């Protein structure tokens, strides 16, 4: 399986041998090659074609290129699937057109994904290409959590609702957290905290996502590297009226110049840690705002789930920052959450528990692996009994949502 994550300015790829992989969780997959082509110029088209050709060239040099007979399928990360694509789908012209129609919902992301798919299809026509959507895992969120309290006709006319993102990671991590506890995912309630440059939380009840912090776009929710996360929507009108900023300027402010970067000038948690150790006040305040938001979400999602079995930290910050994990869970003994300081400080690359033996809720660090999950889902689709039958509409093979699904 070749996995392609074609973004606006980079193309990342991984080639995975799934022959010996466990179909349920991908364990046993072998990573044959990986790489990234960065600094792709503005806009899709020739630049993505050039990047994909370089990827193909690098793979060819190792005898693993697009023409090699062992290559069975390509799995593409696609950011926005809207309400139409709620599971992985074999890419046809019609599916590609459907992904194009979603560009207004994800103008920063879907065009790069589409360019990658288009070029990849040209490199070896006939090779199955599968789209795996960042929104898909969140399609089971019940209507009362997915809808904003907006005028319904307006919301429906313009597709305004919570879609959620990072779904591939939330799916993988919630399942791996259950495995770490030695339990069936169907029995485990989990809060997943995906803390990378972008950051999102999800509440997963028995393997089914019931709430997530990102919304119509990846801007809502937690404090992120450069995104504000939650704020009063009237901030936008206020900035337009009082500061005279137009829509694009506010969009850039909230997405690119806010979050940790806007608060203290750094968006890398390592640098913020260094500055805090030197007594830097702005860095300290940025850290405290970041963890305060996290704690609010842990509390809120505990209420949403009723019973929490595990809180799983993942992605760059979640996997590496003991300080964030410690601060985000401090004082939550009332919720049955106790982190063990010694376990929490240990570094490692494997899934592990950092909670105290007496903690009612397990607290875990679970390294995410979105590429492996995309490869697993792609493999499942192209080797499944019904491969080739699915067109892309409807939640055919998903577990039944508990409530009405979007
Ligand atoms: P992306 O969302 O771009 O995939 P990652 O999941 O790779 O991001 O996370 C990137 C972030 O992880 C960096 O911006 C940095 O803040 C954080 N990070 C990486 N390593 C460490 C570390 N050792 N300690 C604290 N934070 C770290």
Automatic annotation (TrEMBL):
Site (Transition state stabilizer): which residue positions? 166, 227
- Indicate the family of this protein: Belongs to the acetokinase family.
Q: What is this protein called?
A: Acetate kinase
UniProt-listed Enzyme Commission number(s): 2.7.2.1
Q: How is the cofactor bound?
A: Mg(2+). Can also accept Mn(2+).
What is this protein's gene name? ackA
Q: Where is the active site?
A: 134 (proton donor/acceptor)
Instruction: Report the superkingdom from the record.
Output: Bacteria
What is the enzyme's class at the highest EC level? Answer: transferase
Describe the subunit structure: Homodimer.
Q: Which organism is it from?
A: Streptomyces zingiberis
Region span, Disordered? 384-406
Question: Which residues of this UniProt protein bind ATP?
Answer: 12, 194-198, 268-270, 316-320
Q: Where does Mg(2+) bind?
A: 5, 370
